[in-house]
Amino acid sequence: MTFTQKFIVIVPAAGVGKRMQANCPKQYLRINNESILHHTVMRLLSHPLITRVILALGEHDQYFSESSLAQHKDIIRVKGGAERVDSVLSGLKAVDVQAYPWVLVHDAARPCVTHQDIDRLISQCLENDCGGILATPVRDTMKRGVAKKAGNNVIKNTVDREQLWHALTPQLYKTSELTNAIESAIEHGGSITDEASAIEYAGLESLLVSASCENIKITHPDDLALAEFYLNKQSTR
What we know:
The structure is a single chain. With 237 residues, the protein is an alpha/beta fold. The strands form three sheets. A seven-stranded mixed β-sheet has the order 5-4-1-6-10-7-11, sandwiched between helices. A two-stranded antiparallel sheet has the order 2-3. Helix 4 packs across helix 5. Strand 8 and strand 9 form a beta hairpin. The model has no long low-confidence stretch (mean pLDDT 93). The radius of gyration is 18 Å and the shape is globular. It has six helices and eleven strands. The chain has a single domain, classed as Spore Coat Polysaccharide Biosynthesis Protein SpsA, Chain A (Alpha-Beta Complex), CATH 3.90.550.
């Protein structure tokens, strides 16, 4: 199905990425001489249906102004918050709902998302008139742990992996629906870890759209090499 509608993407990028053990926020670590954030944003803007990216950046971000993204005409900068949900809400308030009735939200540290996966997400959500997320089915045996003394963890039980999915991004929802869901969840003290969790809190459905396992989130130092491998692999396709 061909869509003429255009989309805007919110990228929350106000975090510091403590687990990366780096001297700068992880989105500014470099792969192939460009920052992770640059790879992510340009991957999004190169998609034919995406016309704008809203970056929610930390108030004291010292790196963005020196990047090539700072002068890009299709990038809107907003002030990020203490938590991801605060940054996303800040971005949502900058969206023209009439021009963009649907909004995508994507992690700054996922530079390897493919256009094919974005196509699939948009297609399935619009065809079903229902928001959704990219996700991958859990393949490994899942264990629930319990903490013991001396900081050790032991297995409590095995969790049935049937119908368990890893939540990825982008996540795509109707702009007004997502805004209302997040505001309501914050007001009532709901635990919001991603956009889908806000939609769940509102009692609404989300589609699970199967995605490539290459769409990794760079969280630990070892992930940098894997992301570089995937980016180089994708560039030769």
